[in-house]
Amino acid sequence: MAGMVPYVRRGRDLVPTGFEDFYNLMDDFFTPRSFERATFRMDVREDEKEYVIEAELPGVKKEEVGLDMNDGRLTISVRREETEEDNAKNYLHKERRISSMSRAVSLPDTDPEGIKAKLDNGVLCVAVPKRNKQASAKKIDIE
Q: Cα–Cα distances in Å, from 34 out to 39, 40, 65?
C-alpha cells in the first residue's frame, strides 16, 4: 500500500482532509525539479581517433543549440523561447515560456579545430577528434 502513495506525499497522513489538491499544488511548487527532467540525455563514447557525443534534443531547432569547446570541456546548451503571436489585444490570459539547459563533458587531448556536429531527427551528434599524442618516453644516454 505504501508503494502507491506518491513520493512527495509520503510522511503525511493517509486520512483525507479536503486539502489534498492544495498540498499537491504546494508540493509541485516548492519541490525542486528532478535532474532527469530538467536536462537532456547525453551519451559519450570513445575510440582510437575521436570522442562521439550524442545528445537527445527532441523538438529543438538548430538555431536553439549552442556548442562550445573551452580548455577540453565541451558544453552543449539549449535556449528555447516559446511565445504565441496574437494580434488581438483583448486577451484574458497570455503566456510565454523561456527555458534553458546545458550539459558539459571533459574531453582530454582533443583537437578543437576538427569538431563536427550534426542535428538530425532530434539527436545532436558531435564528433571531437583526439589530438595525436607525442611520445613522452625518451631514452637518456649516461655519460
A: 9, 12, 22
The x, y and z cell numbers of residue 59, run together, are 523538438
Nearest Cα neighbor of 57 from 120, 129, 133 is: 120
Does the pLDDT value for residue 22 go beyond 70?
no
Q: What is the pLDDT of residue 76?
A: 94
d(CA 8, CA 28): 9
Burial bucket for residue 32 (CB in 10 Å: 0-12, 13-18, 19+): exposed
Q: Which residue type, as a one-letter code, is found at position 13?
A: D
Average pLDDT over residues 45-61: 92
Residues 6 or more apart in contact with residue 82 via CB below 8 angstroms: 96, 97, 98
* Cell reading at 78: 539549449
DSSP assignment string, 5-55:
S-GGGTTS-SS--S-HHHHHHHHHHHSPPPHHHHS--EEEEE-SSEEEEEE
Rounded to whole angstroms, how far apart are CA atoms 45 and 31?
Answer: 34
Smallest Cα–Cα separation from 129: which of 142, 141, 143, 117? 117
